């Protein structure tokens, strides 16, 4: 009997406890207030981010102009990253794919008549040393002729041939030979 009373009490208490637990959450007004607060914080963060972006744009638009010497050094550094002309086996003629490289060098040299360049001619290890010296010189002179035709003064250009003496890749493979058949523009 006592067990029956306890059971009846639990049956009545359980729905009451459940209702109390469900009603203890935030009201609709409280939820709306929280949403408004979050929206205001987001709007404030967006406004600050836009102000920072605007300030950065204004500061970035005032770039310091480079002096002529700084500009020349910048141009020269770019050219030194692109100063090699490669040649086919046993050839001294310049491939058309290197015309743009040589045009950039020619433009720099005509603009800066106080600068000079040494054109180094190189070969792979095939052939006699004498033949490779002559071929290296022919390759360097091909580059020289191209630059002269582009308006560079002859006094700005010197030519030297290293033949096979300064390989960039010492392996005896076709890829290594191709790397060694080159002309290099070295600024003084």
TrEMBL record:
Pfam families: OmpA (PF00691)
InterPro entries membership: Bact_OuterMem_StrucFunc, OMP_bac, OmpA-like, OmpA-like_sf, Pal, Pal_lipo_C
Signal peptide, first to last residue: 1-29
PROSITE patterns from the UniProt entry: OMPA_2 (PS51123), PROKAR_LIPOPROTEIN (PS51257)
Location within or outside the cell: Cell outer membrane
Manganese in keyword set: no
Assembly and oligomerization: The Tol-Pal system is composed of five core proteins: the inner membrane proteins TolA, TolQ and TolR, the periplasmic protein TolB and the outer membrane protein Pal. They form a network linking the inner and outer membranes and the peptidoglycan layer.
Function: Part of the Tol-Pal system, which plays a role in outer membrane invagination during cell division and is important for maintaining outer membrane integrity.
NCBIfam families given in the database record: Pal_lipo
Similarity comment: family membership: Belongs to the Pal lipoprotein family.
Protein name, entry field: Peptidoglycan-associated lipoprotein
Source species: Paraglaciecola aquimarina
Gene that encodes it: pal
């Amino acid at each position: 009997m006592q067990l029956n009373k306890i059971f009846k009490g639990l049956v009545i208490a359980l729905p009451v406890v459940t209702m109390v637990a469900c009603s203890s959450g935030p009201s609709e007004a409280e939820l709306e207030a929280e949403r408004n607060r979050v929206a205001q914080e987001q709007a404030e963060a967006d406004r600050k981010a836009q102000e920072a972006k605007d300030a950065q744009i204004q500061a970035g638009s005032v770039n310091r102009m480079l002096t002529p010497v700084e500009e020349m050094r910048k141009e020269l550094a770019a050219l030194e990253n692109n100063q090699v002309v490669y040649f086919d086996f046993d050839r001294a003629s310049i491939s058309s794919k290197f015309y743009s490289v040589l045009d950039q060098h020619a433009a720099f040299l005509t603009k800066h008549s106080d600068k000079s360049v040494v054109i180094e001619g190189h070969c792979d290890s095939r052939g006699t040393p004498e033949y490779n010296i002559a071929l290296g010189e022919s390759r360097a002179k091909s580059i020289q002729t191209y630059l002269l035709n582009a308006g560079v003064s002859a006094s700005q250009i010197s030519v030297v041939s290293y033949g096979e003496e300064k390989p960039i890749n010492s392996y005896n493979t076709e890829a290594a030979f191709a790397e060694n058949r080159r002309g290099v523009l070295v600024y003084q």
